Amino acid sequence: MEIAIVVFDGFDELDAIGPYEVFQNAARVGAECTTTLRTIEKRERVRASHGLRIEPDGRLADADPDLLLVPGGGWNNRGQPGAWMEAEAGAIPEAIATLAAEGVTIAGVCTGVMLLARAGILDGRPAVTHASALGDLDAAGAQVREARVVDDGPVVTAGGVTSGLDLAVHIVEREFGSSVADSVSREMEYQRRDRADGA
């Protein structure tokens, strides 16, 4: 399984790096998966919302993911780099829509879910996002749920920042089994709060 995490200036660090670590730990205990950090345009570095600078692995267009994970960050700081600017620019929502149409599983964390909404893949679909953007998610036509993680088959969404860890462990369990997910949780000393809505 190839997992691509799309990153952009202003993404929230934990939204992306938390799931990245979960997936990497899953691979270490036997899950057949690789995880990369991808950008839309070729970039040497990306600066996250709290100042972390990362060197991405390449362009999303050069990957062939089975799962695309979209972090949030900056949805409500609309004059700063982040999810709102990326939604307005349109390239990430376009990539999401294209990959979803090709059968790629799409996961959104925090306000990254709003980029899924902008892509048009949440219309009438159960979903959750950060509490500060639930009104926007409802206005976008999603069926808003009160949950940390909502699993609707090819689309999985998570609420606020730390729920990205729950989403990633849920995906590991869904794709590779409970023993792998339990091993990852033990390694990270992470205890999930609840099971995914819809799982």
Describe this structure in words.
The protein has 199 residues and is an alpha/beta fold. The chain is 36% helix and 19% strand. It has one domain (2-188): 3-Layer(aba) Sandwich (Rossmann fold). The longest helix has 16 residues, at 13-28. The protein has helices spanning 13-28, 83-89, 91-101, 113-118, 134-139, 163-176, 178-188; strands at residues 2-6, 34-39, 46-47, 53-54, 58-59, 67-70, 105-109, 126-127, 143-144, 149-152, 155-158. Strands 5-2-1-6-7-11-10 form a seven-stranded mixed β-sheet.
What labels describe this entry?
two-stranded antiparallel ribbon; 7-stranded mixed beta sheet; alpha/beta; 199 residues; globular; 11 strands
Helix/strand layout:
Blueprint: E1 2-6, H1 13-28, E2 34-39, E3 46-47, E4 53-54, E5 58-59, E6 67-70, H2 83-89, H3 91-101, E7 105-109, H4 113-118, E8 126-127, H5 134-139, E9 143-144, E10 149-152, E11 155-158, H6 163-176, H7 178-188
* Number of H/I helices: 7
Q: Overall mean pLDDT score? A: 96
Q: What is the gyration radius calculated from CA atoms?
A: 15 Å
Domain count, please report it. 1
Summarize the structure.
The chain has 199 residues and is of the alpha/beta class.
